[in-house]
Every structure is written in C-alpha cells, then in structure tokens.
Design a protein that fits this description.
single chain; about 270 residues; alpha/beta; seven-stranded parallel β-sheet; 12 helices
C-alpha cells in the first residue's frame, strides 16, 4: 500500500532531493554508486522503472495519486509519496512540474563502453555536448533512428539530468549508453583507439574541405560505424576530426552553413543507421 505523506514542512530533509540539491549534488561524482536522479512525468518514470531503476520516493500533485500515478505507485510498494496541491509544489520546487509528478531514483551502475557496444553496428559518440536539452534530443533521435548505443566523452552533460531525461521522453533508459573515458585526457586519442579496437570506423560530422556527403555509399557499406558529433557552437575538435576515418557533411541550401547538433544528429542517424 502506498505511503502517502502530506507536505506540511518545506524544510523536511526528505524533500531536499526535489527542492534543494543541484544536479551535480545528485550525481555525486565522488561516489557515483550513491548518486540519485529525478525522473519527471509518468512516461519517463515508467520507462525508468521498466529499465530496472530503483525508486526512492515520489513527489506529486494530490490529484494524480488516484489518477495517472496510480499504476506507477502500485509498482513501488510502500514507497513514500509526498503530495500537496499544485501551488504548494510550485512554491517548494521553484518551478512548474511537468505533468505534476517527480520520482527520485538511484542511479544505475555505469557499464563499460565495450560491454554496451558488443554486437552493435551503428553507434553515436557525443563530444562535449553540454546542453542537457540537446543531449536528451539526441538520445530520442538515436533510439528512434536505428542507433544501437550512445557513447559520451567526459565533457558531456549527464543523460540522467532531469531535463535530459524529460526531453528524451525516457529513451535514455531504453538505449544503452556509457562514457568513453573517465577524464578529459581520455579523449580523443585513447577513446579513438578503443573504438578502433571494437572494430568501428569513425565518421566525424564536420564542415571541412575534404568532407564527403552524408549519402556517400562508402559510409553505408561500413559494417560498424561510429557517428561522432561535436559540442554546440564550436563543433568537433580538430584533433578529433583528424583521427576519424571519414569527415562527413550534410548538404545545405539557402546559404545555411550548419544545423544545431540535435537536428544534425537526426539527419545523420536516419541516413547512416538504416
């Protein structure tokens, strides 16, 4: 049976995870196994539960307890469910809740890149993509458009940040992902060597004089291909581009020189993932 707890004290430490801890504090870089994340909306929470993530507590509008949230609460036994009217929750968290429902969960253990890439043909590699919205959008495209896994360099925003998970529509819990390296020094040289050892040819998405078109048949013919996408604004580092097997561009019109990294990822995944 659900453990329904009406919020009467905003300073209750049990609510820190929702109202007072930053994403960095939730992540707990010093001990990732103790880290938490916040899943927002019934869809995201459900997909996190489906993936085996372990919940800690819920925070939701009172009206959802016997509505949208009922099936989720039923899956979680006597987990604490903190509740209050909408205006009280907004005052507590400082922002509007999407679909009026949050769930704090333990972070799942990180898996090695080699493990999640075993048996894959097409993967995405994100280099220092720092905007959580872009990370979430790329994951959604990767899951929808035939990518088998996503690798992130250490400079990337964490996919389980609340906004990333929400923008991804919970696909961060459906498509395997891992970091390729633990420190900034692990990329690109050591990371590229790991990709080669796993059998991948690499395709840098970049505007260079020797870039080939994304519809070049050589790309589709590769048995294993890693599509490498760079950070917002600056794109891929030159040291990364020079180490890739291909440099690839998306043909443009009307004088447009490039796309946002999330938009470019969708085009690349569709063309190269089929």
């Amino acid at each position: 049976m659900a453990n329904i707890i009406e919020i009467t004290d905003f300073s209750a430490p049990e609510l820190d995870v929702y109202a007072r801890l930053t994403e960095a504090q939730l992540l707990n870089r010093h001990c990732l196994t103790d880290g938490l994340f916040i899943a927002e909306s019934p869809l995201v929470i459900g997909r996190a539960l489906d993936a085996g993530c372990v919940p800690v507590s819920f925070l939701m509008e009172r009206k959802h307890i016997e509505g949208e949230a009922a099936p989720l609460i039923a899956r979680c036994g006597d987990l604490p469910v903190y509740t209050a009217p909408f205006d009280v929750l907004t005052q507590l968290t400082g922002f509007r809740l999407t679909r009026g429902m949050l769930c704090a969960m333990h972070r799942p253990p990180l898996r090695p890149a080699e493990e999640i890439c075993r048996g894959t043909r097409r993967i995405a590699v994100l280099e220092s993509v720092m905007n959580p919205t872009n990370v979430g959008a790329i994951f959604r495209s990767a899951a929808a458009l035939h990518m088998d896994a996503v690798l992130l360099t250490p400079g990337c925003s964490n996919p389980l940040y609340r906004r990333s998970a929400r923008v991804s529509m919970g696909t961060v819990f459906q498509i395997p992902w891992a970091y390729i390296g633990e420190t900034m020094e692990d990329w690109p040289e050591r990371g590229m060597e790991r990709l080669r050892t796993m059998g991948f040819k690499t395709a840098a998405m970049a505007l260079e004089d020797d870039s080939i078109s994304i519809d070049d048949p050589r790309l589709r013919a590769e048995e294993k291909l890693a599509i490498v996408l760079g950070t917002e604004g600056d794109g891929l580092a030159q040291s990364t581009i020079s180490r890739c097997d291909y440099t690839v561009r998306i043909p443009m019109s009307h004088g447009v020189d490039s796309l946002n990294v999330a938009a470019a990822s969708a085009v690349a995944f569709w063309q190269l993932g089929r």
